[in-house]
Amino acid sequence: xxxxxxxxxxxxxxxxxxxxxxxxxxxxxxxxxxxxxxxxxxxxxxxxxxxxxxxxxxxxxxxxxxxxxxxxxxxxxxxxxxxxxxxxxxxxxxxxxxxxxxxxxxxxxxxxxxxxxxxxxxxxxxxxxxxxxxxxxxxxxxxxxxxxxxxxxxxxxxxxxxxxxxxxxxxxxxxxxxxxxxxxxxxxxxxxxxxxxxxxxxxxxxxxxxxxxxxxxxxxxxxxxxxxxxxxxxxxxxxxxxxxxxxxxxxxxxxxxxxxxxxxxxxxxxxxxxxxxxxxxxxxxxxxxxxxxxxxxxxxxxxxxxxxxxxxxxxxxxxxxxxxxxxxxxxxxxxxxxxxxxxxxxxxxxxxxxxxxxxxxxxxxxxx
Length: 368
Description:
By secondary structure, this protein is of the alpha/beta class. The chain has a domain at about 35-135. The chain has helices spanning about 1-20, 135-150, 150-165, 170-190, 190-210, 210-230, 235-255, 260-280, 280-290, 315-325, 360-365; strands at about 35-40, 55, 60-70, 75-80, 90-95, 105-110, 125, 130, 300-305, 305. Helix 10 packs antiparallel against helix 11 (about 360-365). The radius of gyration is 60 Å and the shape is elongated. The relative contact order is 0.05.
């Protein structure tokens, strides 16, 4: 027996050393040597264990190094290969390879926002950017709740009532949907005006909020005013009754004098027509009538106790005598083609009853 052990020991020792050394070699498709560590916070890691895979786009790029608990948060430390570059705002999810497969950590770039920066050694993915997939037990439990009276019966009732409500009203419903579509389209076309109105309403609300004290004081002042109105209710009612009577009387007067009023308006029509025909002459005549016998600008000539005048004096003796005595100079032509009536013209040698023969004498002397 001892001899057999001595023969087998030299043969088994190299095999044992080789097997122990293989445990430190990286697995195919796993993380390489080195890499950088990233801490990921989860609300629940389920049955995730150390040495689980870390994947990006279903490709293994690292492994789970450590799982720790910090209060109500699970902290998972993973090591990612150096040749894998991920943005600093990456997200992480806890998934499993199949329905009953093993759990792994999936890291992916953000979807809703643009990638920023890069994950480095010691970086942390916070809990608000992590999630986990639903467990088989949770899915089966929800299905059992639904099938066991959770909501199918209610859905059946809703479906039946909806069919009863819509049956026979297809045309009306179609018209309603068309009007609803037009209404929504109109709202969409006026969305800028609606937003502007909402902004204006918001500004008004802010202004009212700043004037809360003034508004409160105004509302407080309404109380005494309402009390005064209540005390004067009888007088106000009497005033309204009087106004009603006045309206009745006014209506009666207007109806009774309707014909006379229309006749007066018709009588005014010729006068108004003549005023329109007079044009500018009527206001000019009124202006002259107010200052008669002087022109309207006479006030500009009066300066205190003297008057500024501009006079054109015609001292032609013939014109003067003609104006004074009603005659005219011999060289003056006939004033009118038609003379005075024959029976009124004085005869030869007859004197003018007003001036006698003085005018003819003077005029004759001037002419001769």
